[in-house]
Design goal:
The chain contains twelve helices and 13 strands. With 363 residues, the protein is an alpha/beta fold.
Length: 363
């Protein structure tokens, strides 16, 4: 068994395979949170037909790519900043805006804290309560924020809790922050997996609120982490101007523009959402009857589970699963959770049946 305080990112398959002496290609990645359908067939064909695009420099303005994203999201192409993955954009926000005091809603993705720390921002965490099911109350958050804060960071749906904040509640938060001079960033990496995206996404609010920046990418829903595309949507003039001048030229490769047909692949988009919605409901129903675990009803493509059995830890369950070729997420390293929490994402039906049955064997 690995040591108790060691946990792994969903992409650490090579490390895991070496540590446990198993074939990396036989590990089922229930920790990656990536769409199990793989890349869009339209994007795949476009990449195969246009592989020679790698021989040319990309269009420095990325016109084709921005127009594809604009058509997909409804946001103006002029309000888009492209990055080499969402992580680059998160760091770019901290670099450009240099917030002196940042509030991060947790438990959440660690990259926000790392980016804030690198720029010397004074970091505060508004920790959601397990007793509230990790649900956010906008009024309680408002009471914790004052004009001394420069930036509020929200992941919606949140990783690792899987909970989504409805758009009407987000607007309350953004309005309150606007009155206090606080910029709000909303990371929507997982929003395309929710049941009704229009009731959750903050993209449409960017036209009204200049203190809002929304992040999205193609790693998870479009199953293309290797293409490294993230994009920010905002009407914030300071960030738009500075980011346009500050970004490294040609930071996004030529193949991303070729693959941008993924944004118009309605068959892939609808099939993905239907699959995840169906599996999410089945998995929640199957797990929630077990009395030795607490399952938090998910809105995203993964589920968070609290282990209730006395003495049982996340590392023990992780160890049990990985020895059977299943990689789940030990959430011990998430601030605010600890050694009693695991998370796994939804893949194809037979794989989901296997991970649920395997977890139920030990919990």
């Amino acid at each position: 068994m690995v040591i108790a305080d060691e946990s792994f990112h969903g992409s650490d398959l090579e490390i895991i395979a070496d540590r446990y002496g198993i074939d990396m290609n036989r590990i089922v990645p229930h920790a990656s949170n990536v769409n199990p359908l793989g890349i869009s067939s339209l994007a795949k064909q476009a990449l195969m037909d246009n592989i020679d695009a790698i021989c040319s420099y990309p269009d420095p303005n990325y016109t084709t790519l921005k127009n594809a994203i604009s058509n997909y999201t409804g946001a103006s192409a002029d309000h888009l900043i492209l990055g080499n993955g969402t992580s680059e954009l998160i760091r770019l926000v901290f670099k450009i805006l240099a917030p002196k005091k940042t509030m991060i809603i947790g438990p959440t993705y660690s990259e926000y804290g790392k980016a804030a720390k690198q720029t010397g921002s004074d970091i505060h965490t508004y920790m959601l309560k397990e007793s509230d099911g990790f649900e956010l109350d906008p009024q309680q958050l408002a009471s914790a924020l004052d004009a001394s804060f420069d930036l509020l960071v929200i992941c919606n749906p949140n990783n690792p809790t899987g909970k989504a904040i409805p758009k009407n509640k987000l607007e309350q938060i953004i309005t309150d922050c606007q009155s206090k001079g606080i910029l709000v960033t909303v990371d929507e990496t997982y929003v395309e997996f929710v049941d009704q995206i229009d009731l959750i996404s903050a993209v449409s609010l960017t036209d009204t609120y200049k203190n809002l920046i929304v992040f999205r990418g193609i790693s998870k829903f479009f199953s293309s982490p290797g293409l490294r595309l993230g994009y920010a949507i905002t009407t914030n003039p300071q960030f738009l101007d500075a980011a346009s001048n500050d970004k490294t030229p040609w930071s996004i490769n030529s193949l991303v523009s070729v693959a941008s047909v993924m944004f118009s692949d309605e068959h892939f988009i609808n099939l993905s959402r239907t699959l995840i919605q169906t599996e999410r409901n089945l998995i929640y129903s199957a797990l929630s009857v077990r009395k030795t675990i607490k399952v938090y009803k998910p809105d995203a493509n993964f589920v968070l589970i609290r282990l209730l059995k006395e003495g049982q830890t996340a590392s023990e369950v992780f160890d049990y699963c990985i020895k059977r070729g299943i990689m789940i997420r030990d959430c011990t390293d998430y601030e605010g959770l600890g050694e009693k929490y695991i998370r796994f994402c939804f893949l194809k039906p037979e794989e989901n049946d296997n991970v649920v049955n395997t977890i139920l064997e030990i919990v």
